[in-house]
């Protein structure tokens, strides 16, 4: 449902400290796990179900701590959530490395399966970096909604809403300073998608060194997948 200007002025949901819904992050994580499970065996560094089972084991306690909305945060919660994202990210980058090696040295002839694998790696790249940005920016999803702005860590990203308070009224009403807006998972997934397609920032700017480093790694990964892997696969098809 589209939020109205009246809704924005109430400062909801941050004002009521309801927290983000748990379901979108679970769906995104399970999608990344499923994409990994569907990769060809030659792109995996371990038996097919080892990493997915580990990732599911990490996900279960995260859901138990915050089953519906992300309102509770402990040190263990942060370690588990960051470890989960890290495992998915590393396994996907390794799959990309093996995929490139197969292209360069192994003389892969199955172009169709290669195209599908490249798409899986690219989609996983979008999801996992979106999750990573979501987990790290301003202290993570719990801090962004539960802590007062004065207590939040420095932002890793500057969204357009963070600087719209001096725009025309119908735009300013949804700005951070006016409506107490904070980014949600969808905002970070959008950031990740644009970074993987444009290979550079678009409307959201990285501010911290770690944000710039992560966006650089993601851009290079997406560039390799898009230009090297897919181009080689298309040439094989012809």
From TrEMBL:
Transmembrane segments: 21-39, 45-65, 77-101, 113-134, 215-237
Keywords, sorted A to Z: Membrane, Transmembrane, Transmembrane helix
Source domain of life: Bacteria
Protein name stated in the entry: DUF1345 domain-containing protein
């Amino acid at each position: 449902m589209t939020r109205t200007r009246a809704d924005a002025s109430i400062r909801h949901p941050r004002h009521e400290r309801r927290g983000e819904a748990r379901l979108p992050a679970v769906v995104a994580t399970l999608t990344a796990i499923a994409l990994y499970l569907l990769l060809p065996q030659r792109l995996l560094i371990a038996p097919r179900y080892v990493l997915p089972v580990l990732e599911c084991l990490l996900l279960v306690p995260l859901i138990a701590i915050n089953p519906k909305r992300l309102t509770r945060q402990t040190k263990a919660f942060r370690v588990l959530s960051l470890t989960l994202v890290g495992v998915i990210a590393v396994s996907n980058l390794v799959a990309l490395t093996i995929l490139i090696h197969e292209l360069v040295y192994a003389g892969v002839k199955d172009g169709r399966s290669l195209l599908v694998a490249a798409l899986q790696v690219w989609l996983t790249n979008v999801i996992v970096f979106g999750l990573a940005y979501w987990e790290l920016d301003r202290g993570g999803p719990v801090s962004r909604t539960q802590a007062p702005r004065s207590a939040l860590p420095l932002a890793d990203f500057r969204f357009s809403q963070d600087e719209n308070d001096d725009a025309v009224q119908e735009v300013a009403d949804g700005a951070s300073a006016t409506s107490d807006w904070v980014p949600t998972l969808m905002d970070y997934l959008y950031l990740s998608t644009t970074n993987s397609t444009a290979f550079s920032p678009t409307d959201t700017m990285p501010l911290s060194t770690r944000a710039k480093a992560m966006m650089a790694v993601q851009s290079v990964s997406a560039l390799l997948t898009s230009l090297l892997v897919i181009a080689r696969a298309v040439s094989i098809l012809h």
